[in-house]
Amino acid sequence: MNILEQVEKEQIEKLCEGKDLPTFKPGDTLKVHTKVKEGDRERIQVYEGVCIARKNDGLNSSFTVRKISFGEGVERVFPLYSPNIAKIEVSRIGRVRRAKLYFLRALRGRSARIADDLRAAQKAKDILAETGEK
């Protein structure tokens, strides 16, 4: 491992302290809790949508979340290790066969829905039951 990789790994560990980043993939429905600063106040705003892309590039990792807001599709790219992300929750696990779900941009209504991956959801529930979490 060269020096750059080592420094990058240390920075990732430093940014992940106190945060519990779940494992998620494209097709999952996420709730991203972001910190919003308005003047001297700071609050948490939740952005819920489908993860349509994920870029794994060390410290530069990011993911794209798409939601429909007032009939208009809205996408937002979040840096994975950003200090502005308070928490990421996985609300539904989707079953897809692609890594990038850009085709959802052209779909509307029922055709834009993603099937639930019931086996993965059951496996996640079993793991949480073993650890005693909610």
The proportion of strand residues reads: 35-45%
* Main β sheet profile: 5 strands, antiparallel
Mean pLDDT score: 88
- Series of H and E elements: HEEEEEH
Distance from first to last alpha carbon: 38 Å
Task: Using brief descriptors, characterize the structure shown.
single chain, 134 residues, alpha+beta, 5-stranded antiparallel β-sheet
Overview of this protein structure:
The chain is an alpha+beta fold and 134 residues long. The protein is built from 2 helices and 5 strands; from the N terminus they run αβββββα. The longest helix has 14 residues, at 3-16. The protein is globular, with a radius of gyration of 17 Å. The mean pLDDT is 88.
Layout of helices and strands, plus pairs?
Blueprint: H1 3-16, E1 29-38, E2 41-55, E3 62-69, E4 72-79, E5 85-92, H2 118-131
Antiparallel strand pairs: 1-2, 1-5, 2-3, 3-4
Summarize the structure.
The chain has 2 helices and 5 strands. It has 134 residues and is an alpha+beta fold. It has one domain (3-131): SH3 type barrels (Roll), CATH 2.30.30.790.
